[in-house]
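Fold this complex.
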Amino acid sequence: MTHTAHRILIVGGGYAGFYTAWKLEKRLRRGEAEVTIVDPLAYMTYQPFLPEVAAGSIEARHSVVPLRRHLKRTRIVAAKVTGIDHAHKTATITPIAGEPYQQEYDQIVVTAGAVSRTFPIPGIADNAIGLKTIEEAVAIRDRLLTNFDKAAALPPGPERERLLTVVVVGGGFAGIEVFAELRSFASSLVAKYPELTFDETHFHLIEAMGRIMPEVSLKTSEWVLKDLAKRGAFVHLDTQVTSAVDGDVELSTGEVIPADLIVWTAGVMANPTVVRGGDLPVEERGRIRTRADLRVGTDDEIVEGAWAAGDVAAVPDLSGGGVGGYCVPNAQHAVRQGKLLAKNIVAVLRGENPVDYLHKNLGAVAGLGLYNGAFQSGNIAIKGFLAWLAHRGYHGLAMPTWERKLRVVAGWLGNVVLGRDMANLEAVQHPRAAFEEFAARPRPAQPAVTPPQAPRDAGAAADAPEKSRVAAGR
Ligand SMILES: Cc1cc2nc3c(=O)[nH]c(=O)nc-3n(C[C@H](O)[C@H](O)[C@H](O)COP(=O)(O)OP(=O)(O)OC[C@H]3O[C@@H](n4cnc5c(N)ncnc54)[C@H](O)[C@@H]3O)c2cc1C
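Structure:
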């Protein structure tokens, strides 16, 4: 089969991948290229909403964008890319059902994002949960609610205290947001549980550095610390987790905090499956070495036909504001890089020159629970209610597609009138339990027993009740 159109393969339909495909659909002429997006998930996740999903302020399904609904001219493949052989322009596709196969391409776009980065601390892999996916956010919310139910059924004591203790590890943006949102959620829940008191709920955030939220000024970060302390949430600075075996969180200070909900947000790393499973160049921090025009390679050497963007890519930050000279992993960059990447691919296909990526950080805005937030742009800082409004305004607008924006904003307005939704669907993790409990099963087959030989008349008498039973059953 001969291919007249260029085959563009996008690895990962998250922020950068979704925007690349969306903009390619707008820019490409009909028949100019075939675009395929490969992602094991059928949706792009708006990760900045995860803390609000965990706190019940946003419905989980509203904070994801279904790929098939919004990418009308892109082929969507539910699979993982598990290998990239760029020397032969072939990717290994491992579908969610069926056998792995090889897919040829002309241009590859690597936008497979990042995963939670952990350290080999005993107990963390078994007892903690990350916050990178919608499933994790939902599970965190349901666990908090289930723990409140369990604690309310127990007398005061160590088990009840453990159930009402939340530990978040990592004081970056995501960590502080989910910590503050969960504190706010738990405070509102206490009013619905007459068996429990506010003082019984314990919130601890563990941060290895001497400050939180490096994206905002020291002054703003100190305000956030004070505000959290006022709300009964404790931040342990200059402290590390040394163990979490059986949920007992041991700190480098010697303190031990037994907890039933441990959220790990202490950093991310470029997607190892895609980075290590391929032959594209990788830099010291494990990201794909990418040029400012988003082609893979260096200033001196271009890897023809390969592009990368978002958290998986080390893109030079030409604004001078990046860490180590590279763009930091955030949505601000991922979305803009995705848009430019689409423009640059089309330019290259048409024999034109791609342009360099340049974006000056707009600042940072964090939601810190209902009616509370922090905003920082340069020297300008806003705290409290106005910052919370800015947070909702910014993210409400930034959510891709009007269809999704409307669902999120309608949910927020509904919550103003009705309050946030505290329905707990943790049982969905065992959806067949209720059905199985009462389901009728066939009786196990009885081993065949040969009846003893009986006299003729007695046998006829013994048959009689059996016959009448069969007749009654008709
Ligand atoms: C809790 C939280 C809050 C945040 N808040 C903010 C914020 O307020 N502002 C901000 O700017 N940024 C924020 N971020 C960061 C931002 O969300 C990320 O930087 C952004 O999502 C990165 O986009 P991406 O496209 O590189 O990766 P992602 O959006 O993570 O997408 C990667 C995609 O690749 C797919 N994938 C993974 N492995 C494979 C594979 N093997 N094959 C194919 N596909 C694969 C995944 O399923 C996913 O869909 C936040 C992040 C988190 C976790």
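The chain has two domains: 6-116+269-349, 124-266+364-399.
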